[in-house]
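Office hours follow-up: a student asked to see two folded examples consecutively, so here they are.
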Amino acid sequence: MTRVKRGVMTKKRHKNILKAAKGFRWGRKNLFTKAKEAVIKAGKYAHRDRRAKKRSFRSLWITRLNIALGLNGMKYNDFIALEGKKSIALDRKVLSQLAVENPEIFTKFVEKVR
């Protein structure tokens, strides 16, 4: 059986991990084992926070809507219920943007939903 030298692939894998760990502090940028751990953990944090970002933005939109609706004399949950009954399909992101950028148009929209 022929001999297989494995240095090339190992070097490539190490180089890719160290490249991904660029900018990390202390030994985590240039010691392979620590860099590998740091890159794996960073990937987990990145995945977790991509999911959390969606939740936090939705929360922001709801807060903005609640404030804008309060200025128009309505509560958020009543507005969403009425919107559902009248089958108006505007999501919270669009409504929040409308409330922030065009308050007059948003007021007219709230009156229409009412």
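And the second, which I mentioned at the end of office hours:
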Amino acid sequence: MLYICPHIALPVSEIEFSAVRAQGAGGQNVNKVANAVHLRFDIRASSLPEELKLRLFQLSDQRISKDGIVIIKAQEFRNLQQNRNEALRRLKALLQAAATEIKPRVATRPTQAARRVRMESKARRASVKSLRRRVSEC
């Protein structure tokens, strides 16, 4: 089980892993060993709550396809198991980001005292700047 929140858990059986060859330099061994991991997770077919599914679809993340499949490629480590754990960590971070509910901002007005202090500081600043002007000879 992959625990996202205290009340949301995801069975690992819903996540599909496939080993692929890593990109980039690595010597002769890079062409023989499949150490990178492709993680595929179908949002629609998952057991996640409907509200979380909707939030995932609303995210503008390039890892989520139009079909609702999350694809994460992990090739940071030279070990398959470490890359698998890294892919799971990234999926968990993505799901946690979608699970956190953003509170709407409540518009407030500045108090009368705050407005008075602001106007006094503006007047003080204006007087300092007016004293910097050239003295006119009359």
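Two things to take away from it. The chain has one domain: 2-99. The longest strand covers residues 36-42.
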